[in-house]
Design a protein that fits this description.
Layout (H helix, E strand, L loop, with lengths): L1 H4 L10 H9 L3 E4 L12 E3 H18 L6 E4 L6 H11 L3 E4 L6 H10 L4 E4 L1 H4 L13 E4 L8 E2 L21 E4 L9 E4 L1 H15 L7 E4 L5 H13 L3 E3 L5 H11 L3 E4 L1 H6 L16 E4 L6 H10 L6 E8 L3 E9 L10 E5 L4 E6 L12 E7 L5 E3 L2 H6 L1 E2 L2 E10 L5 E6 L10 H11 L3 E8 L5 E7 L7 H7 L10 E2 L15 H10 L13
Parallel strand pairs: 1-11, 3-4, 3-5, 5-6, 6-7, 10-11, 10-12, 12-13, 13-14, 24-25
Antiparallel strand pairs: 1-2, 8-9, 9-19, 14-15, 15-16, 16-22, 17-18, 18-21, 20-21, 21-22, 23-24
Helix pairs in contact: 2-3, 2-8, 3-4, 7-8
Protein name: AMP-binding protein
Pfam families: AMP-binding (PF00501)
InterPro entries: AMP-binding_CS (IPR020845), AMP-dep_synth/lig_dom (IPR000873), ANL_N_sf (IPR042099), ATP-dep_AMP-bd_enzyme (IPR050237)
Amino acid sequence: MLQRLLPERGFYLGLMFQEAAARHGRVRVTLDRPLDVAPDAGTDLGYTELADLVDDLAARLWSAGVRPSEHVAILKGDNVDIVLLTCAVSRIGAVPALLSPSLDGQVAAVLLDRLHAPWLITDRATLESTLSTVDTTLARGVLTVDEAPGNAIALAALAGVPRRPAIRLHPREPSLITHSSGTTGIPKLAVHCPHTMWNRLVPQQALGRATRGEAAALHMSFVHSRFYHLLGVLLHFGSPLLLLVDPDPAHAGPLLAAHRPGIVETHPNTYVLWEDLADAPNGPLSNVRAYGSTFDAIHPRTVRRLLAASRRRDPRLMQLYGQSETGPIAFGWYTRRGADRVEARRVGTGIPGFTRIRVVDERGRKCPPGATGAIEARTRGRILTYLGAPESYARQVDQGWWRMGDMGYRDRWGALYLLDREVDRISTVDSTLEVEDELLSRFADLREVIIVHGPGREPVPVVCTRGNEPLDPDSWRRATEDLPALAEPVQCRFEDLPRTATWKIKRLEIARQLAAGELPTLSTAPVGG
């Protein structure tokens, strides 16, 4: 019924800031570093200034020759201007393709090739590093946000060109391209359209209504679709924003303390880092009413520390479960009252009217409550295809049901529990994620623990500690006595673990490095005896 009543609504990134400025005026937006595209604009702006900057950048892109429906790859140093450039590309009807600054050159070359001679927006540092071995002459044109080397066109040289009216693509035409995390290989290019993006936005607006207008602090990947939906919600309700590039507690803590946000969202692994802020002077998290967590599972210890840090009456941590390909398909929340009973594997329930979830066995039959199987979802927010890999897309769809690639089960009330990625399962461990949660709860000084296949298929814990302090062998032995049999732990620096743009750990790559003897380990590792 909903589909028939509202058949062609769309979420248009190019209009976001303009509509927010018209509705709310100069609401404050604070950055932790100046924009690369407008370094003189400072770090304290407003909806109105950002809307004008998006309009200005759109005019420059049009003057450079960018036209509707053309692909525009954005691959540059991490900064908030990735967002503004994305909106500017969208505003003239072109299709932004967002590539993570963390990609290596080989992967970037593959993705640029799949985009079929796109325009490329970049910067000198990226051209001299990530793209140094990539043939950028295959691009339709290269635009830079700073000094333009070679035949590239500097966007600064196009300042003052006439403004252009905004262009809306048809709601079912491709309008945004993002890529998957790449935890299992070369990332796939996910193609979004305004209509499917609108179907993701609406339920998130409903979930965000309770905290409308609260100041929000975000440290998230600017190349992930989740960021744009959250930004759409916050702009719609007129929230003042603090947008962070650097998550280091020494850097982020004072900014959070100064702005006292009521809403905070970041990656689960950043939340682990921000546990250090829970008891920090000036209470950087003391005013938080709602934490948001997506991208990956969040550990119970982290949930408890974050909720305890807030002095609000009833703070909550909202968890969304989904993928780039689907958007959120399940949601749930934790409260301070129930923090001691947090079940991290419980990722929530489907979103009424927008998503349905089922768990199936190896023959595609629906599993009864409590039985483990593959998680599948039917959602109005599913992407159109994988650009350059339609066969991979087709393999994951079964009569409208999308294979999530995760294993889990549903309880008798329909709540979904996530156990493992299908490719990460270890036969001797029912759920590696559950064991990891337990270990983090038992060791306050653990920064991260990842259980991967060892060279002999044995479960190997790869551990990172705060300050890279060595684990105590006796404590480790006692703490793991009642857990499934594990190999001796291998200790690493968190910074040395291969990660995605959203700080997800690349488990398969760690297992490969471990088998090949290429995993950087600390001199104290392996520990445990």
